[in-house]
Amino acid sequence: MPEGPSLRILAEEAAKFEHRKVLEASGNAKVDIQRLENKTIQSLKTWGKHYLIIFSDFYVKVHFLMIGSYSIDEKRKAKVRLGLHFTNGDLYFYASQIQIHEGNPDDSYDWQADIMSDAWSRSLALKKIRSKPDAVICDLLLDQEIAAGSGNIIKNEALYRAKVHPESTVSEIPADRLRKILDEARAFSFEFLKWKKKGQLSKHLSIYSKEKCPEGHDSVEVKYTGKTRRKSFICTKCQKKYG
DNA sequence: AGTCATGTTGACGA
DNA sequence: CTCGTCAACATGAC
What we know:
Radius of gyration: 19 Å
Shape: elongated
Distance between the termini: 34 Å
């Protein structure tokens, strides 16, 4: 569920609630849920892995973390964290982090950092990456300040496609490789979206959770890498380690 | 049935 | 103050 492309799917599915009035709000979220009642949604947006339900002077931020989920119109067995009820249906969130923030998200979010946004700026991301020369690249591909929406699958796939080892040190990676990694991360995010919609994501992955790389190499190493200690799948024949 | 995870935060101690 | 480590969250896919 939780990487950026999955949020894009949610945004499409829930678009019918845009400009609708919340008739009733329910759930066990530890926020002032009643505040949403009888208010009209101004817009619904995503920023990376954040789902934003925007009202006139405040917005609700939904984050699915690892195991959050949602459903539309049909209520599941799980405990409802936040349920919004409209004349044309219902929107339910489960096991998600719910926050209310004052003001408008445009004042606090930089859309250039969202790897799937039309406003995405590769050069800005590169600048942020270069400012951390001692970091390993796998950590920076999970950094939401740098590439909002990128998660562990996108990290692994982008690095495999760019032929770079996840534990490569930023200062040692040639500039064209860094650009390639970011371009692959963005391009793969849209492929992720396409295949996830068709329910065929896993069979279109190159390296994540695979035992062989697409070149047929048997040399896929599984390792928890970087400060983030997230799982990396590495073809030691295809991916070069810099530094 | 049990394990693991597409994630982040906060507490705690060194 | 900063860093590393760990727990917590509580669903769903396999």
